[in-house]
Structures are given as C-alpha cells and as structure tokens.
Amino acid sequence: MPTQHIAPRRPGFMERERLQDLLDALRLLGYRTLGPVVDEDTIQWREVDAIDALPAGVQARQGAGEYRLEVQPDDRLFAWNHGPQAIKPLLFSAEERLWRERLMVDGQIEIKQTLPEVEPTAIFGVRACDLAALALQDRHFLSPQHPDPHYKIRREALFLIGIDCAFSAATCFCTSTGDGPSLGEGFDIGMAELDNGYLFWGGSAKGSEIIDRLSLKPATEAQLNNMIQGTDRAAAQQHRFLPGETELKQLYEKLNHEHWDEIGERCLSCGNCTAVCPTCFCYSTGYQRTLDGRSAEMKRQWDSCFSPTHSSMGHFMVRGETTLRYRQWLTHKLAGWQEQFGRSGCVGCGRCITWCPVGIDLTQAVAALLDGGLADA
Amino acid sequence: MLDAHLPHSAVIDRRVQESPGIFSLRLQYVDTNVQDVFEFQPGQFNMLSLFGVGEVPISIVSDPDDSHFFDHTIRVAGRVTEALSRLQPGDRVGIRGPFGRGWPMAQAEGQDVVVVTGGLGCAPLVSVIRYLLRRRDRFGDIHILQGVKNEDDLIWRRQYELWSREQGVNVQLAADMPGKEWPWQQGLVTELINTLDLNLEKTISMLCGPELMMLAAIAQLRDLKLDDQRIWLSMERNMQCGFGQCGHCQVGPKFVCKDGPVFCYSEVADFLGAKGF
Hints:
The structure holds two protein chains of two kinds. By secondary structure, chain A is of the alpha+beta class. Chain A contains 13 helices and 14 strands.
C-alpha cells in the first residue's frame, strides 16, 4: 500500500510519561491499538490500551536457536528486538476462508466471496526490517494484476507507528540488507526511543496530523544526537551479515555445493523459518465440505517449502529430500526473489536463525556456499 | 472487487468420452457477462472445481475464437478428475481463469511449426494444432510428432489421420510398443525429430509431455542447430492459486502458473531437468 510521503520535518520530543497521550489520541480516532506485550515468554502483538502493558526494561537475547527475555533495570519500553512474528500474520492470515458455496433448494450452486471483517488498527513499535518486509508482501499480495482482496482490506485498515532500533539482537543483520536499523519508509508515524523520552515525526499526512495534535516541542540538538547514537549503537552491535545482491545471485551457480548436504543433515524440515519469516508467502488451499453436504468452502493456510506436499505433483515430489527443500528456500529467498520482486527476499531480521530449533544460520550457510566469492567479507 | 480466487459457475453443454480414461467437456459460463469477457490463448488453463469435491488446473483445448463455449479435455488422474468424469450435460462446475501465458502464436505466424508431444494425448498442443489448421494460410509447414507408449494410448487417432491428409502437414507417430494395427513408427518420438529437414530461419517448435521426453527432444532440436529462442515448451507443477501467489509451482525464479506454463526454453534452461526444481 503506497503510504503518502511527506517532507521530513524536525521531530518533536515527548516525555516518557506522556506516551499514553499518543495511545489515547489513536483510540479516540477509532483505532484498535496493538503493541508489544510479553506473552508466552516472547514479545507478541497484543491489544494495548495503557502503556503500562508495554514491556518496560525487557530485552530479548537472541542467538541461533535461542530466544530469552531479560529484564534490565531500565524504563525503556522498546529495548527488545522483535518477537517471533512481524506484522505478516495480521495481514496474510495463517488460515482464512476465501469463498463459500452453497447448494440451493433449486439445485443451483451459489458461490460467495468471504471477506474478513476488519477495524482500523494501529500498531505501535514496528521495526524497520518489518516495514521493509511489509513492502515486499505488499508487492506480492497487491500485484496490479491480481490484488488479493483479503490482504488488501486488512492492509487498508492499518496505521503504522514505526520505531528506530536503538539496540540489535545478536541475530540481526539489517545493516547488510539495507533495511535498518533506522526507519526507511512505509510508516505513518516515525518514533525513536531516547534515554529519557521519545522523538516523533510524521511519515504520512495522516500521521503528521496526529503528531500536530500532540503539540510536541521541537527536538533539541542533544535529543537528535541521542537518536542517532541509538541507531549507530544498534548498527555497531551487528556482527552477522549477508553479501550484496549480485553475490547472492551466484547461489544459483552453487546448486551442487556439498554444503547443502551438511545443512540437509541438520535441518528438521520443520518449517519454523518460513513461519517466522516476514516475507515468506506460500500457502496451500484446502477445500472442505460441511457434514450435511449442502455447503463447502475454500480455505487457505500458510504452507512451507519445507512441507512434504509443497512440491507434490501427485505421482511424485519434486523436492522429496530435506536438502533440496532447504536449497529451494535459500536460493528462492536470496536469488529468485531478485528476479521476481526486484530485490532479495531477506530483510535481515534474523528470525529464521533465532527460531530454528537446530540453530541453522542462513548467513553462515551463504558464507559457506559462496566461499571465496565474498570480496567484502 | 475482482477476486482471482473466486470461481464462476459454468454449465456442461456437451460431454465426449475420448478414450477409456479421457473425456472432454464443453462449457459455458452461466453468467453471460462472464462468458462475454472470457478470452484466452492456446496453452492457457482454467481451475475447474466441482461442488463438494475440489479443484484442479486443466488446459483449455478449444479455439480462442469460439466465444460461446470453451472446452477442456481431462484425463482421470485423481479424486477430482474422477468425479469430473461422472458429470453429464446440464451439470455445473466452478471455473477460475484463464491463467498463465499461452503458446507464442504471434511469433509462430509465417513459420513452419514443429509440434512434439509425448505420453497421453497432450491437450495443450492439440489446441495449437487446431488453431494452426483453422488459420492454415498464416503458417508454413506443420510437423506433428507424437509419441505414445502403447498403441492404445493414442487418443484422437482418427483426427491424426485427418490431419495427415491436409496439405503441408506432416504427421508422424511413434509407439514404444506398437500393436499389429499400428501404421506408423516404432520407437521414441525423439527419434522422429532427426527425420525432419528444418528451415532453421523459419521454424518454431512447441513441446509438451513428460520432462525427460522434452529434454531429449530439446537436445535433438539443438543438435539440428535450432535456436533456443525457437524452442517452446509447456510445463506442469503443483498449482493451487493459478496466478503466482501460493508459491507451489515455482521453478527457480519462475512461477509456472503465471510466467508459464508455456516457456521459451532459454527461460528455464538452467532449471529444466535439474533435481529439486
């Protein structure tokens, strides 16, 4: 969804205690407000009506196959680095009905589109990598030829409050993909968490209007420096990286590299990486009839190129082996996407590394596969 | 809002049993507005759904200029096609489509056309043959090379005989295991390619069938020095959405359902026959 961009202005400063004002302003405008909340020992998007619910002092320690929340003696609300899900599930639902058909008394069949009911939703604290992923999902699901009405209706109801990252997790590598840690575009309101408060700036006309209502003081030089210190620190904390897109294209020349087999032996083909990846878009359709036989529906459900049926042709599987499935995922994500969408499908969030139960690290895989080909390593 | 997921009802006007396991349905959209705007190219496909059963991708075999009806020839291969085979005139199916890119008919104008098929009757190419014959003056010589395993696998046998009587049409059939009544070659369809005397500057080839057969045919055509840009093929993969969204049919960076199913060989050369693609 092309967000309407406006010329950047000097951000306004808000004391930490006043953050509730923004939440209230959005709720007053009729938005359901989602924010980061600690749930099931992870950061999740949940409905938030009071800032007390936000995770004060919580940081997420992440590593290959590791995610632990830790509480620091700090009152920052956004020191954590993302939970298992970006905003993908809020737009591309993990399971939903596409249409329904009904056998009428006269023997005719009535086919009806089924669209989700949505309410305007504001999301608080969306990271730059997740916004970059959202732009890619938009390109896929809102293609000019076949815009997906289910995705579109949710997308149009979305209001996004992005936030600069002031810290990186050990799994982050957005600086190398060019997607963070500072906000790029695609948000309605931009936000940075300082040592003692917040800076806000408009990213869309709608967002600027709300910022104006908050009557914030223009940021001081010291506050702007504090903002830059934050993103500089986050960038400096990153030690994983992916090579440039030209090099990533060479993965298609490494289809017979022995390293695929090494990964194939470790990979459980569980599909966690594709479930947490903010750009993975595969789904399967399933047709189900009700027990009385008088109506039926077509559903779609997230699928994964790691599932056995993904490549099924009925009589045989194109990718029966795990090695081939991992190769499909990695080559598609990093090389195939470039032809399909004009850029790699990786935004450097590192979720596939964190949530892999055996800790397979795509940055290491790429380095091993392109060994000798990494001029800038 | 247009929704490519949503089928429209179509009614069966006619049903023809082509062979024991193959049948054709002539269809018309119930909503005349939908029928009126339905346009397709040979090689494109529809998603056919049957109430209470499910949905399958099937190639369109009728002529694009027949605006009142469209035909599908279907081989019974699974649960849905089995159920479709029991339908009779007057019954209804759901249709989504047409999807994909068809054969390069514009590029083929003025050219000799070599049509190579293997396996059971290859519907995507039958539509091409009919298209060419109906516009005979716009194309050069037509070579129809068809390979089957058993003699009995050949459907439309009578039609091949009729086609072979047309001027400038060269029909050659090969059966792996021919019976006594088989008037054509014994062997593989790829062996027939060597018998052709191609005008390399004005020939286009179109292939359809099992990938191993197509790979062998491509190797032969390239041996004869036919340019890769003149070799086209129709591919098949797991297709669920039909318009490049669900991700199943990808071969390298190509969506078979959207970028294909008809490809120029040079577009898929890196991945055709490669394990895992």
